[in-house]
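Researcher: Watch the backbone:
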Amino acid sequence: MATPFWNRSPADTRIIVGLSGGVDSAVTALTLVEDGYQVEGLFMFNWSEDEAGRCQAADDFDDAQAVCDVLDIPLHRADFSREYKARVFRYFLDSYAAGRTPNPDVLCNREIKFDAFLHHAERLGAHAIATGHYARLTHDDHGTRLLRGRDPGKDQSYFLAAVPMAALERSLFPLGDMHKTDVRKKAQAAGLPIHAKPDSTGVCFIGERDFEGFLRQYLSGRAGPVRISGGVLDGQTIGEHAGLIYYTIGQRRGLGLGGVAGASDAPWYVASKDLASDTLWVTQDEAHPDLVETTLTTAAPHWLIEAPTFPRRCSAQVRYRQRALDCVIDAGPDNGLVVTFDTAPRAIAPGQYAVFYDGDHCLGSAEIVAPGAGAPLPDTSNNERMTSSA
C-alpha cells in the first residue's frame, strides 16, 4: 500500500493546487511552497460562456499564471466544462424545474473539484490536492476528519460535506486555521499581484449576473397566482408570478408586491409554492408556520463518519449562512432522514442541504426533500419547459 501523503516528507510530496486566480487559492499555493512541498498549480475551466464576449475565466487564468510566476511553480490547465454541464448544471436545471432550490456549490465540490480535478491531478503525478477552502482536515492513522474553519465568517465546511471521504483523504486545506484578513496580508507581503482582488460572489457559474435573467435562458416559468397565506386576508389573490422556478422559500426581495389593500407596509415573504396549482403563497408574518418548521425530511445521507445509530443528537445547518441548531436525526422514508430541531430553523428549502455537526466536526450531509416529516415533493419536472440546450 502506498504511503499516505501525510506520512511523507514535504520535499517528497507533490501537491497540485486548484488555482482560481483569486487570493485564497494563491495563498494556499504560497503556504505549501513555504512548507517545502513540491507544488504545482492547475486552473480549471468549468464554464464556457460569458455575456461580455471575453470569458471571465480567461482573465482569471491570467491572474493564476501571474501568481505562479511569482512563486516559480508550473501551471497546468484543464477544461472540465463538459463534466460540469453534465454533472452539475443539468442537475441544477432539473432541480429548479421541479420546484427545488439546489446548491450548485455543493455539487461542484463533489463532482468537479474533488472528483474530476482530483483524478486529473493524480494522472499528473500528484500525491494530494489542495484548495483554498476555509475548512480544516485532520489526517492520521485513525482516519480523516472534516472540521469547521477557524474563521467563523468564512467557514466553508458546509459546501464540503457531500465530498466522498476517499477524496478528502487525499486533500489539504492550508487556509483552515487562518482568517481572511490574514490571508490578504500574507498575499500582499509575498508580492502576489492579486492580494487586493475582490472575492467572487454569486452562484459559481453565474457570478454577479441577474439570476432570474440567467435562468430564463434555460427554463420557461409558467405564470400563476400570488395568494396570501394566513391572517385576515388569507387566500386573497394579490398578483401574478412569472413562474415558481424563480422563487425560493423565505425569499423577501424581488417579489414585486406593492401596496395591498388591507395589508400593512411590512415586507412580504415567500411562504410556500404549490406546484400542482402553480400558486405562490406569500405572507407578512415572519413567524408563519411554513417558515418555522421544526422538522424536515431528507434524501439518503452521505456520512463522513461511520454510519451512526439512530436516534442521534447533533446539530444541523440548513443553509450556508444560517447557524447550526441542535437536533435529533432519525431514520426516515426511502433511506432518508427525519431531522427534528429543538429550535426551528428559518425557511427550510427543498434542494438545499442539511449538514450535520458535532461541535466543529462535520459528520455528513443530506439533501433536503421537504419541510416536515411528510412525503417527498412530487415529480413536477414537466411543469417547466426547457428553452435552450444546456
In short: The chain has three domains: 11-211, 221-290, 292-371. The radius of gyration is 22 Å. The mean pLDDT is 90.
